[in-house]
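Q&A log
Question type: sequence-to-structure
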Amino acid sequence: MARVAADSPLLISNDVLTGTMEQHLRGVLATLNPREAAIATAYLTPDGFAAIKDQIAAAEQVRILLGERPFLNRRGPSDRLGAPTDDDDLAGPGEAIDWYSFLEGDYPWLLLSHEERKALLAAGATDPASLEAFNLAAWDKVLALVTFLERPEVAMRRYLADKAGRVPEGQVLSHRTASSARLHAKAYLFRGDEGAFATVGSSNLTKGGLTNNIELNLASHDERLVTELEGWFDGKWDEGQECKAEFIRLLESCVLFGRRYTPWQVFIKALDAAYGRFLDLSLAAEVAGKLANFQQEAVSRCVALL
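Response status: OK
Response body:
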């Protein structure tokens, strides 16, 4: 791929005319041989990472700044990792079981902890019956990203603005933790043997952001511009809080565990089963007086469904 002229920013919008972010990043990084990489993205998925993992594998320093918690899809009580345009959701095994089969020993993995399930998958063919419950292709994707992130030269933070440094360990990626000032900017900054490169715009580090989504990004080799963007990144990095270990554990959990219910959800369900028939689902007079008849009927039906 031709080198971008220093004084001529290149437009990249994931189309036939301008090419995709994935194509440009791979082409540039193959010749740049980056020693340093700084990436700001709202979201990061294994499919997005896979697009550039080989090109940044030898980097001596990699900093990843997240704007949001990494899970784009929430379905019921579980988190499922992946963007709508990724190859698939990285889902775990089905945790719903037949109790008679469980008592017969047909679910040897069910009561295993996080670390024990990891060990089970690492053991591979030694227990093929247990492995049938897991999505091994999804686990391979997760493992590739985890292996990269666990390198000491790779750092990860979540942008939290004034909350940075004050959030308890293990809660940095909680959906309740987000700062009122969100990081929406996307930036890919690289320095290597053949100079520097930067691209800024709208593309997240997801498969869709790099290939399929309608995006708008500008790329440049201009040294002054790259230096200025590095200064911007450093400032936002200082307003982030370390979250690599938390990200890795959540990432693994998406494949190691399936749909689960919290003790609170089980408690509420038990109460409903025991006493739900005694609940008064009629509308209070104060509420009913403000609604038309068809609205009252709609609300009553919705309440009953809850």
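Response note: The beta strands are 10-12, 34-41, 61-66, 73-75, 78-80, 154-159, 186-192, 195-201, 217-220, 240-242.
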